[in-house]
Amino acid sequence: MPSRSSLSSLGLQLLTILLVFVCWELVGRGGFFPPRLFPPPSEVLPAIVEMARSGELAEDLLASAQRWFAGFFLGGCFGIAFGVLTGRILWLRASLGSLLNALSSIPKVVLIPVAILWFGIGETQKVLLVAWGTIFPIWLSTQEGTSRIEQEYLWAARSLGLRRLGLVRHVLIPNSFPYIATGLRIAIANATFSLAAAEMAGAFSGLAHRVFYSHQMFQTQKMFAGVVLITAFSWVLNGIFSLAVRRIAPWLRQEGAA
Amino acid sequence: MTGAVSLSSLTFGYGSSPVFRGLSVEFAAGEFTCVLGPSGCGKSTLLQAIGGFRLPQAGEVRLSGKPAVVFQKHNLFPWKTALENVALGLRSAGMAADAADKAARESLESVGLGDKARSYPGELSLGQQQRVGIARAFSLQAPVLLMDEPFGALDAQTRLRMQQLLLGIWSKSKPTVIFVTHDIDEAILLGDRVLVLSGAPAGICADIRVRAERPRHFESLALPELAALRKKIFDLL
After folding, report:
1. Domains defined along chain B, listed by start
2. Which of A195, A223, B3, B59 has its CB 3.0 to 4.6 Å from that of B176, i.e. a possible disulfide?
3. Which of B76, B89, B120 sits opposite A161 (nearest CB)?
4. pLDDT at position A58
5. How many beta-carbon pairs below 8 A join chains A and B?
6. Tens-digit pLDDT profile for residues B91-146
């Protein structure tokens, strides 16, 4: 059940968005810019409706969402698993630390040509690029969280007979949850960025592909429609994430964290 | 025999300075021993060595089975409810989930927290948290119970109630208890035996039997033998 305060905060957010649209409309109609280059929302929204009616919207949304979730899931699983390992095993952290930093500082877009070379422009390449954008913030934050744990928790776990997977599941991961949540939030933004970049570099469907393609066709309304849709897409993902955190980690509520 | 704990020439140190050197002590099964000493004298370290959490540089700890532990803080997992905290050990010992939950609930009821089963530690007072910790430790039915200043952070009144509660539960199953404290009254009220630790490296400077009758209460401290004992220990420290 969403609480009263979270409902009113959602209301405020929607109000802000409405205000942005009103300003955009006023500027668009004010004659400051050529309308072909800066269409107001009253022309962009019909473009979205048209995309929805033709089925284009559903197709693009589905394609993007599939790539996004598959990549995020893959990157998330590996990120958490690697993070637990390097967080708890000192020599692994010491040996992989600089490699990890080097890999995560590669600008994500320069890997797109490499990925296309190896995997073509199919789904695999896009899912892997999203996973690549996801894995590092999650890995680093999980490592940070699992390496900082009160001795007593580990001792108590041992006296309760927890070891290996039980220890990871019942103690290490929940203890790192605030860290992991921060990593996941960064990963959400990264995943969307990588997805958009990959779709613009070569795709036949997807929200970012639609932006790129409409730009090539000089369909400005549709191009802006794509931008609005991608923005809405990440906004919804962030919302889902916040709700999920509260559901998964109820013990953090009274501490005011996450 | 189960429950007996034996330390033979135990040496432990951080870096080059030893915390204790060549320490040998026997703890009889079913006995309640309090380890008393000033802060920083190494009594917690000793307890951690007994629990196998710190490996000694030399010497040996003999102890049958896995000891249950209660610490002063970071005892309970904040991400698990009171019930889950207690049931976790039972489940990992191989008990079926519903049997473990039932036993955990009974254990919580025995410390008067049956109604807090679904609360997270963050929603409980410090005293309640330590009661859950005690319920968890006793629910495992371990032959040895290690307690490291479990009531150190509590206010005086809660502390008295908790001591009473602990004695009540302990007298039913009588595990071997090794209880670390820096409070003289607490040590002589709870223990069958008080080990006074001091010096650097730490050594046992007194090994005292407490012969006062059980059950003991707060008022027992006024008994002449306990009053004399308290004076004696006070002079030692």
Report:
1. 28-67+143-237 (3.40.50.300), 80-141 (no CATH)
2. B3
3. B89
4. 95
5. 64
6. 999 999 999 999 999 999 999 999 999 999 999 999 999 999 999 999 999 999 99
Residue B187 main-chain phi, psi, to 5 deg = -65, -45
Segment A197-202 mean pLDDT: 93
Which residues are B148's β-sheet partners? B180
User: Could you tell me if A23 lies within 8 Å of chain B, comparing CB atoms?
Assistant: no
pLDDT for B177-227, tens place per residue?
999 999 999 999 999 999 999 877 878 888 999 888 888 888 888 888 888
Among B32, B12, B31, residue whose Cα is nearest residue B20 = B12
Give me the helices (H) in chain A, please.
4-29, 41-54, 56-88, 90-104, 111-119, 123-147, 151-159, 165-167, 173-201, 207-216, 220-248
Least CB–CB distance from A156: residue in B75, B93, B120: B75
The pair phi, psi for residue B59, each rounded to 5°, is 90, -175
| DSSP 8-state symbol, B32 | E
Is A250 an 8 Å CB contact of chain B?
A: yes
Backbone torsions φ then ψ of A249, nearest 5 degrees = -125, 65
Report the C-alpha gap between B49 and B163 in whole angstroms: 25
Please tell me whether the overall predicted TM-score, pTM, comes out greater than 0.90 for this model: no
Dihedral sign for Cα B201, B206, B209, B212, please.
negative
**Structural domain boundaries in chain A:** 43-252
**Nearby residues of A244 by Cβ (< 8 Å), 6 or more positions away:** none
